[in-house]
Design goal:
- This protein is of the alpha+beta class.
- The protein is built from 20 helices and 19 strands.
- The protein folds into 5 domains: 83 residues, GIY-YIG endonuclease; 142 residues, no CATH class; 123 residues, 2-Layer Sandwich (Nucleotidyltransferase, domain 5), CATH 3.30.420; 145 residues, UvrC, RNAse H endonuclease domain (Nucleotidyltransferase, domain 5); 55 residues, DNA polymerase, domain 1, CATH 1.10.150.
- 45% of the residues lie in helices and 18% in strands.
C-alpha cells in the first residue's frame, strides 16, 4: 500500500457516503457505505477477500470519497456515479434491456394509445412493462378490436372537419377527426381502455357480456355478435398470458443464482395477476461475491431507469439492506412500493419459480459457454496437438486469392484470435507484380508483403507476428507461400487446406492429414478458410463493380476521371445517376451545365425508344 493510500485511510470519517476507487486516475469501482472509515479500511486491511475484490484492490492506487447526509442519499449518489463512470468492477447491466410500455398521452384532446420504448416524465400514462415489442403489439391489436380508438396521427381537433376513414365505416374508430364524437365521449372510452390496461380484464368482460345479453334480448343479433367477437379477443389475450395465483397484483419477482464463477439474476413481471414476461441478466464474475450485496446492486441498477412496481418480491435479504432498498425504490417510484421476502404461500411459490428460472438460465449459459469454448479455444488447443506446434496458436491468419480470369486479382488476410474472428485486423491486398491468373505467384507476393511488415525495422510500420498461418490450397500453394515468408526473414508455422477432401498439408511432408468431420479443429480451420474466401471475393466484386461503373462513363464527353470519381462518390452507381434529375447531377462538385446535360442525355437516350 502506498503512502498516499495510508494517509487517506487515516483521515476517513465515520460518515455515510460513497467511495471511488481509482487506478492511474481512472475510476474502477464505486461503492457506498454507512460508515466510510470502516468500509474503505476493510478493503486494505481485511482478509478472505473474494477473487473479484482482491483483483480490484490490487489495481487501486488512489481513492476519493463523497459524503452524504443519509444512507438513502448515499445510495442515490452511488447509482448516479455508476451510471456516469461505468466502473469496470461494478455490476453493469450491459444488456440494456428496456421493456416497452403502452402509452396514453392524456394531454391530447383525443388521446392515442401506442407503444413506448421507455418511460418518460412527460405527463403521459404508462402501462406495463411488457417483456417485448411482440407482447405490446398483441395487446394493442386486441385494444383495436375491442375499443374504437383512433390510430391516426392527425393533430386533433382539426380546424376543418374531414371525411371519416375506413376504420369508422367498419366500427373500429369513433372518427373524432370528422366530429362524430365529442371529447367527453372519447374520454369515457379512454377510461375503459385504462381500466383494461390496469389488468381489470374481468370487469371489462362483465360489462361486455351484459351489453351482449341486452342486445340479444332486443333481437339486435348482429350487434350482439360483434360484442361476442370482442369477448373472444379478450379471452384469447388472457390465455396467451400466464395466470398466477395473485389477485390483481403489480409485482416484480427477483431472484439470484450463483456458481463458482458467475451469477444470474431473474426478474418475473406480474401485472394484473398475469405473468406478462420475465428475463434473465448475466452478472459475470459475481459468482463468489456476497449474494445479498450482488442482489442489492443488481436491483439498484435494474430500476435506475425503470419505474418500480407497487411490490417487489425477493428470495432473501438482510433487514438493513431491505430497509435501504425499500426507501430507494419509493423514491424512484415517487409513491408506495413494498419490498417483501415471503416465507410461505403463493408469493413464496413465485419467488421459488424465479429462483428456478435464474438457476436454469445460469446452467444454460454455462453450457453455451462450454460449447463456445470447444469451438474456439478448445479447437485451437486441439489444432496445436494435431500440427505438433510448440506454442498455442492464439493468432491464426488465413489467406486467399480471388480474380476473374486473371483480372483485378486481390488477396485477403483474415485473423482469428482464440478461435474467433478479429475483423478489425482483416486486410485486403491488390496484386501488383503478377499478370494473369497465377494464384501461386499471387500468394507469393502477398505473403512476402505481409511478412516484410512483420519484420520491419520501423516499429510504427511493424505488424504483429501470427502464431499460425493457413493457406487456402494444397502443397504447391503452400510451397510458394512458405518460400515468400522465409524470403521476408520470418519463420512461422504454416499449413494448407485443400478443399476437395479437406486435406491438411504441412511443409516438407508428403502425407496429408485427414480429420474426422466432427472434429472442432477441422471446423475452426474451415471457418477461417471460408472467411478468407468470402472476404477476398467480396473485395474483388466491389472492385469489379466499381471498374464497370467507371467504364460506362468513360466515353461520355466532358466526363473525365475527376468527374467520374465525384459522380460515383455521390450516387454510388450508374443506376442511381439515371434516376437523378438534371439539377441533382449539376449539384455534383466540379460539374458544369454542359457536362451535366451530356451525361443526362446519354443516360436517358434509350428512354425515347
Amino acid at each position: 500500500m502506498n503512502e498516499n493510500l495510508q494517509r487517506k485511510i487515516a483521515l476517513l470519517p465515520d460518515s455515510p457516503g460513497c467511495y471511488l476507487m481509482k487506478e492511474q486516475g481512472k475510476i474502477i469501482y464505486v461503492g457506498k457505505a454507512v460508515n466510510l472509515k470502516n468500509r474503505v479500511r476493510s478493503y486494505f486491511h481485511g482478509r478472505d477477500h473474494t477473487p473479484k475484490v482482491s483483483a480490484m484492490v490490487s489495481h487501486v492506487d488512489d481513492f476519493d470519497i463523497l459524503l452524504a447526509r443519509s444512507n438513502l442519499e448515499a445510495l442515490i449518489l452511488e447509482c448516479n456515479l455508476i451510471k456516469l463512470h461505468k466502473p469496470y468492477y461494478n455490476i453493469l447491466l450491459k444488456d440494456d434491456k428496456n421493456y416497452p410500455y403502452v402509452r396514453i398521452d392524456l394531454a391530447e384532446a383525443f388521446p392515442r394509445v401506442d407503444m413506448a420504448r421507455r418511460m418518460e416524465k412527460d405527463g403521459a400514462k404508462y402501462f406495463g412493462p411488457f417483456i417485448g415489442a411482440t407482447a405490446v403489439k398483441d395487446v394493442l391489436e386486441t385494444l383495436k378490436k375491442v375499443f374504437p380508438l383512433r390510430t391516426c396521427k392527425l393533430p386533433l381537433p382539426l380546424d376543418k372537419k374531414r371525411r371519416p376513414c375506413l376504420n369508422y365505416e367498419i366500427g373500429r374508430c369513433l372518427a373524432p377527426c370528422a366530429g362524430k364524437c365529442t371529447e367527453e365521449e372519447y374520454r369515457t372510452l379512454i377510461k375503459k381502455v385504462m381500466r383494461f390496461l390496469s389488468g381489470d380484464y374481468k370487469g371489462v368482460l362483465d360489462d361486455l357480456k351484459t351489453d351482449m345479453q341486452r342486445l340479444a334480448m332486443e333481437f339486435q343479433y348482429e350487434r350482439a355478435a360483434v360484442i361476442r367477437d370482442k369477448i373472444r379477443d379478450i379471452e384469447g389475450l388472457m390465455e396467451r398470458q400466464q395466470a398466477v395465483q395473485v389477485s390483481g397484483a403489480e409485482q416484480d419477482v427477483i431472484a439470484l443464482s450463483q456458481d463458482s464463477m458467475d451469477a444470474m439474476a431473474q426478474v418475473l413481471l406480474i401485472r394484473g395477476g398475469k405473468m406478462v414476461g420475465g428475463d434473465s441478466f448475466a452478472l459475470p464474475g459475481e459468482g463468489r461475491e456476497n449474494k445479498d450485496e450482488v442482489l442489492f446492486d443488481f436491483i439498484t441498477q435494474y430500476y435506475d431507469e425503470r419505474k418500480p412496481p407497487r411490490e417487489v418480491l425477493l428470495q432473501d435479504m438482510p433487514e438493513e439492506l431491505l430497509s435501504d432498498l425499500a426507501a430507494w425504490l419509493r423514491e424512484k417510484r415517487q409513491g408506495a412500493c413494498q419490498v417483501l421476502v415471503p416465507k410461505r404461500g403463493d408469493k413464496r411459490a413465485l419467488v421459488l419459480l424465479s429462483e428456478k428460472n435464474a438457476r436454469d438460465a445460469l446452467e444454460k449459459r454455462n453450457a453455451k459457454r462450454q460449447v463456445q469454448h470447444e469451438r474456439t479455444v478448445g479447437a485451437c488447443q486441439s489444432l496445436q496437438k494435431i500440427l505438433g506446434l510448440e506454442n498455442y496458436p492464439k493468432r491464426i491468419e488465413g489467406f486467399d486469392i480471388s480474380n476473374t480470369q486473371g483480372i483485378l486479382s486481390v488477396a485477403s488476410m483474415v485473423v482469428f484470435v482464440d478461435g474467433e474472428p478479429a475483423r478489425k485486423e482483416y486486410r485486403h491486398y491488390r496484386i501488383k507484380t503478377v499478370e494473369g491468373a497465377n494464384d501461386f505467384a499471387s500468394m507469393h507476393e502477398v505473403l512476402l508483403r505481409r511478412f516484410k511488415r512483420a519484420v520491419s525495422d520501423y516499429p510504427e510500420e511493424r505488424w504483429v507476428m501470427p502464431d499460425l498461418v493457413l493457406i487456402d490450397g494444397g502443397p504447391q500453394q503452400l510451397r510458394f507461400a512458405r518460400e515468400a515468408m522465409l524470403e521476408a526473414g520470418a519463420d512461422v508455422p504454416m499449413f494448407g487446406l485443400a478443399e476437395r477432401l479437406e486435406e491438411i498439408f504441412l511443409p516438407g511432408q508428403e502425407e496429408s492429414i485427414l480429420l474426422d468431420k466432427h472434429d472442432p479443429a477441422l471446423h475452426l480451420i474451415q471457418r477461417i478458410r471460408d472467411e478468407a474466401h468470402r472476404f477476398a471475393i467480396t473485395h474483388h466484386r466491389t472492385l469489379r463493380n466499381s471498374t464497370m461503373q467507371k467504364s460506362q462513363l468513360e466515353d461520355i464527353p466532358l466526363i473525365g476521371p475527376g468527374r467520374r470519381r465525384a459522380l460515383l462518390a455521390r450516387f454510388h452507381s450508374v443506376k442511381k445517376m439515371r434516376e437523378a434529375t438534371l439539377e441533382e447531377l449539376l449539384s455534383v462538385p466540379g460539374m458544369t451545365k454542359n457536362a451535366a446535360e451530356n451525361l443526362y442525355a446519354v443516360l436517358h437516350r434509350d428512354d425515347k425508344n
